[in-house]
Amino acid sequence: MCDIDLFLTFIFINLTAKKFLKMYDVEDWNNYLIRAFIPLDILLILFIIIGVTGNVLVIYVYGFKMKNINDGQYFIPYLAVADLLGSVICPLFGLSMTLMPMTYEYDALCKLGWVFGSVTTLMSIFLLVTIAIQRYLKICRRKGPRMTLRWKKILMMCALLFSAVIGGTSVFTKGSIPFHHLNRNVTGQICGTKAGTLSVVYDGVLGVGAIICCGLLIVPYCLIARKTHKYLIKETQCELQKQTETRNKITENQTKEHSISTPEQSDLEVKASKLKTRENQTIRYSVSTLDTEMQSENDITLQDNEELSNNIALDRENSSMRNNRNNINEQPHKLRQTNRRIISQVTKIFMIISFIFIICYIPKIIIIILETASTTFWENATDFERLVLMFVHQGYILNNIANPLIYTFFDEKFKTEIKNIFCHSIFSKTIESN
User: Which segments carry the region annotation Disordered (predicted)?
Assistant: First the structure.
């Protein structure tokens, strides 16, 4: 009987020790990862600060300060709202995963984070695709269909609906799941993708959709760049042709001036000699009647007026030739200014935004493909590899905070409004302090 009691006690102590050791290993591993993720936590907090500040300024300036918003700037405030939500929700969700890397037991929080993060991200993507199509229709299909205000609102509602449907589906594929580390032989809880066919299909659809969206961003802007390049070449040829025609006209004017100047000079000399002869006649012979005296004075006055008008005509012709020469010298400068105005500033801005979006999301797309291809992708990764993958995985948030910086660098109106806001605030603080 005593042997049985000792045996049961030994089994109980052994199981308790194993359970305690297992819990200790999980907590120790969790604390180790928390310390390792501190640089990422700092980066995510900076993302929140920069994203909120920048996107609030964009919404305020484009939504309330700028009265005359052109056709291409219509989507900017709505894109800024999506970026503002994304710059808050996505970093906070990332912080929840870095602060509970192996003890993420809150399934509802995990699902909500995935849903709201996916909705804001997809909303930004659909808006960028809509903007790319709108720019393509405006520049490459000038005689084709236009995106009217009604269609813009319809596309906005469709983008919101699709984002909600696709993002809401992640409720069934994401959640708190067990995570088993092969080397440590311990199991924790993480926020990730549930195993199953639905998750594989969902991730596959997201991956294919992301590739299609990248194509819808790349192709329209490539066509826009091609159209713009052709237009620039055509404009350059037209300007060169105008310069050639102007030079030919100046050469013709110079030839005419040279051919006309000699007869005019001879006529002037003859007229001057006649004037001298008449003056001598006036001195030699006295004219007693008033009519003949006035007639001679009128003749002399007419001769002076003709000489003066000829001189004025020559001066005008010379000045026009000088102006033509100056115009030729100014042609290259005007050509450069025209070329800079050809590409719309709004198109430039959205091309850069789309390019940054693709760069930020390519690593995330690759990780989604790897997760779909291998169900043990995260389990097989070492601690260092997991740290690097988490940095890369959260890099897509840069897309939400980069847009205000792009507007600041490339939109002069936005830059001017920002300067006015800061100058006004500094001036107000100075007055209050005095």
Answer: 244-268
Q: How far apart are CA 207 and CA 167, in angstroms?
A: 14
pLDDT at 49 over 90: yes
CB 129 within 8 A of CB 220: no
Classify domain 38-195+348-423 at the CATH topology level.
Rhopdopsin 7-helix transmembrane proteins (1.20.1070)
* SS3 state at 188: strand
The residues spanned by each domain of the chain are 38-195+348-423, 238-338
Query: What confidence tens digit (pLDDT) does each residue in 99-157 have?
Result: 998 889 899 999 999 999 999 999 998 998 888 888 888 878 777 777 888 888 898 89
**87 in Cβ contact with 45 (< 8 Å):** no
First to last CA, the chain: 93
Spatial distance between the Cα atoms of 378 and 370, rounded to a whole number of angstroms: 10
Report helix, strand or coil for 374. Answer: coil
Q: Which residues pair with 179 in a beta bridge?
A: 188
Taken as a whole, the chain contains a residue count of: 434
pLDDT tens, 392-420? Answer: 888 888 888 888 888 777 777 777 888 88
111-132 burial: b if 16+ Cβ within 10 Å, else e: bbbbbbbbbbbbbbbbbbbbbb
